[in-house]
């Protein structure tokens, strides 16, 4: 394996996934993945720009950061790129008033958004909120719209909790897409716009960044953003979450 | 419009859909679609062979027939081709032991099937049973199987109840297909085998049958079974359910 300094030649920043890479969530709040707390600390000491880039959509950024800090991570809210704030930008830009099919933990992110007389549906990982009644309400609303707009916070198939694998928002988005005969607009990974906004936040070009972590690869970041480097950086850093997926 | 006798030249049988064609379901049991009770009676008087071919998967055949008889239809259990009994044949033939993600109303159809140590998932229109917990249990089981088998009773996008449009099994099947990276096997419309079994039951060839009704067209029966005639037979019969879909 090439030396640390050699592998990092030309690298100015790192995008880090959170769930499944830094920690595994669970009913107890979750547990850090072995080595990840130290890896983040080492990255920050190295002078690389670090951006946490997550599709987490059950918790607000504030709650997520508080949890990670309790688990020992050096992280602040301003370092996190998450789909809910990005969605709020899209909603405002396009004059969309959402019906929210989301987890209660993330509802506060939409406090400042007009939700009267909805003209679109925003779907996120609602967990137990994916009841038949809630899905059907979103479906009926979409079917009533002349121009149905479905915005999905990510398109993950599933994620891992300490209790096992859990269906993610992508599965439920597929259900609504099929029932309504429409295609959702994804905000979050693997949307190239999402990664670009994270790069802009740290002022680093795509070819200067590394993306260690499983979700990034499975979500297709290599194709989504031109130039992000692949390699075994994650292993070198001591990040061992989803080892079959390191980029 | 051609005369009744002319349009029926060479026709020996009729496959009739039930939900959305003969009646609209609902919390109150449902209501007959105007003209449909008389249309069934007229068909039977005409000497044509009649087979009721439904994807109904919230009720057992017995409960469905009892309901339809209460609504005034001349129908018996032996005249109905439904996906649950067809699924039981498939399960027995292939030695499959299902985990059932189905409505309680249809569970009795599987009473004689070994459900211990499941090696497949059978999904039907579970209605309120499509909770996150139930979906996740089916998902986890499929992910644990070396050769995951998902059998779906139909692939309808939605159906109409008196209270409005309702998400159908097809949407939830898509969710599991996407999450697991598999393709479900459909028993029920639009599976050609399903229509063929209905034709066998009345001893009529595909080119000798007419399929008036909306669901048949939307489910692609025209392509699924070679030769079923299309036309305005439904209108002539006085069947007015889903008029934009008559075949």
UniProtKB/TrEMBL annotation, chains A, B:
Q: Name one GO cellular component term.
A: nucleus
Q: What is its EC number?
A: 3.6.1.1
Q: Tell me what reaction this enzyme catalyses.
A: diphosphate + H2O = 2 phosphate + H(+)
Report the SUPFAM superfamilies cross-referenced here.
HAD-like
User: Is-annotated flag, keyword Hydrolase?
Assistant: yes
Which cofactors, by name? Mg(2+)
What's in the keyword line of the UniProt record? Cytoplasm, Hydrolase, Magnesium, Metal-binding, Nucleus
Which InterPro entries does the UniProt record give? HAD-like_sf, HAD-SF_hydro_IIA, HAD_sf, LHPP/HDHD2
Q: What does this protein do?
A: Phosphatase that hydrolyzes imidodiphosphate, 3-phosphohistidine and 6-phospholysine. Has broad substrate specificity and can also hydrolyze inorganic diphosphate, but with lower efficiency.
**Organism annotation:** Galemys pyrenaicus
The protein in question is named Phospholysine phosphohistidine inorganic pyrophosphate phosphatase
Any Pfam family from its record, for instance, is Hydrolase_6
């Amino acid at each position: 394996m090439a030396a640390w300094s050699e592998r990092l030649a030309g690298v100015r920043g790192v995008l880090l996934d959170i769930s499944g890479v830094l920690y595994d969530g669970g009913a107890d709040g979750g547990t850090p993945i072995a080595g990840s707390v130290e890896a983040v600390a080492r990255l920050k000491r190295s002078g690389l720009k670090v951006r946490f880039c997550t599709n987490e959509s059950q918790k607000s950024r504030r709650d997520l950061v508080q949890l990670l800090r309790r688990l020992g991570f050096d992280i602040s809210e301003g370092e996190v790129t998450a789909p809910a704030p990005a969605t709020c930008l899209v909603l405002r830009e396009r004059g969309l008033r959402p019906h929210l099919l989301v987890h209660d933990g993330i509802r506060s992110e939409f406090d400042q958004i007009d939700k009267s007389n909805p003209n679109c549906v925003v779907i996120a990982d609602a967990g137990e909120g994916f009841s038949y009644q809630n899905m059907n309400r979103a479906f009926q609303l979409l079917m009533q719209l002349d121009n149905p707009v479905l915005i999905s916070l990510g398109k993950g198939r599933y994620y891992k909790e300490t209790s096992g694998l859990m269906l993610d928002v992508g599965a439920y988005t597929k259900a609504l897409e099929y029932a309504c005969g429409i295609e959702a607009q994804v905000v979050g990974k693997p949307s190239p716009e999402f990664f670009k906004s994270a790069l802009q936040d740290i002022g680093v070009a795509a070819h200067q960044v590394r993306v260690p972590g499983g979700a990034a690869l499975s979500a297709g970041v290599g194709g989504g953003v031109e130039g992000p480097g692949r390699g075994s950086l994650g292993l070198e850093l001591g990040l061992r979450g989803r080892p079959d997926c390191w980029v």
